[in-house]
Amino acid sequence: MLVMPFITEYRQSDTLVIAATGFTNKLSLPVDVFFREAGLSEMSSIVISDPSKRKMLGGLSPEFPSFFDCLDHLRREIACLSPKKLLLLGSSGGAHTALLLGHLLEANYVVGFAPYPYLSIREISRRNDPVSGSMPRVVEALDNLSGDVKKYFDLRKPLAEWNGKTRYYVHVSRYNRWDYRRALYLEGLPHLDIVAHPYSLHSTASSLCRDGRLKDCFQFPYKRTVTLKDLVLPAVELKSRFSKKIRRIAATVSGQG
Questions:
Q1: Burial (0-12, 13-18, 19+ Cβ within 10 Å), 254
Q2: Which one of 125, 128, 196, 203 is at 20 to 30 Å from 35 when CA atoms are compared?
Q3: Does 1 map to a domain?
Q4: Could you tell me the strand order of the sheet in which 85-91 lies?
Q5: For the whole model, what pTM was predicted?
Q6: How many folded domains does the chain comprise?
Q7: Within 13 Å and on the Cβ side, how many CA atoms surround 174?
Q8: Is residue 21 a contact partner of residue 66, using CB atoms and an 8 Å limit?
Q9: What CATH number has the domain bearing residue 87?
C-alpha cells in the first residue's frame, strides 16, 4: 500500500499539529482515532509517515530525497498557514522525529510518547539496548545514513541547547523497563518534563486513551492528575511481576524452564 509522506489537512484553526507516526504508521492508535481522542480533530494538521523506519532522517523519497528537503517543506507549510501555536507530537519511533522537529521548527509544544531518544550504534551498544537485537535492520539502515544527519541521532545533543521557545513533554510507561530507561536518557534537558504513567505497555498513548487521559496530555501547561488508579495500578503491576517471577522459578525447579 502506498503511504503518502505528508498528509496535510487545513482547518479553521489557529493551531497547527504536526504528527510523526511510528513504525506501523500509527500514533500507537490509528491516526484518526488518536486525533479524536486527544481533542485535536478540529486543528490543521500535517501527518508524517516514513515506511523506511528511518525517522525521516533519510528523506522521504522521491519527492523529498533528504531530511533537509523534508524540513524545508514543513517550514513552507508553516509559513503558509502562519499558526499562532505549533504543536509536534509522535509515538514510539515517531517520537524521536517529533522531539527533533519541535526543536528545529521552534514549536510551542512537543508531546512524545515512549521515544527512542538515541539512534547511534555507539550509544545503543553502550547502553546494551535490546533494540539492536529486535530491530537490527533499522539500526543498520540508520547507521548507513550520511554524516550530516547523524548529529541528530542522539537527542541530548541538539536539545541541550534550548531554542528559547519549545516546551517538551515525554510520556512513558513507568513499568516498561526499557521505555522508562530511554526516557530517563533525556532527564535534565532544559524545559523537558518526563511524565511516567502507571503502565507497562510500550503503547503509552493507547493506555492513556483507554483510561480517558489522552486528552489531558494536550492541555498546557500539562498538570498530572493523581487518581485512585495511580495508586492501585503500581500494586497490580508489582503483583503481576511477582507472579511471573514465581512461575519462572517453579518452571526451573520442575525442569521445564
A1: exposed
A2: 196
A3: no
A4: 6-9, 44-48, 15-20, 85-91, 109-113, 167-173, 192-197
A5: 0.89
A6: 2
A7: 13
A8: no
A9: 3.40.50.1820
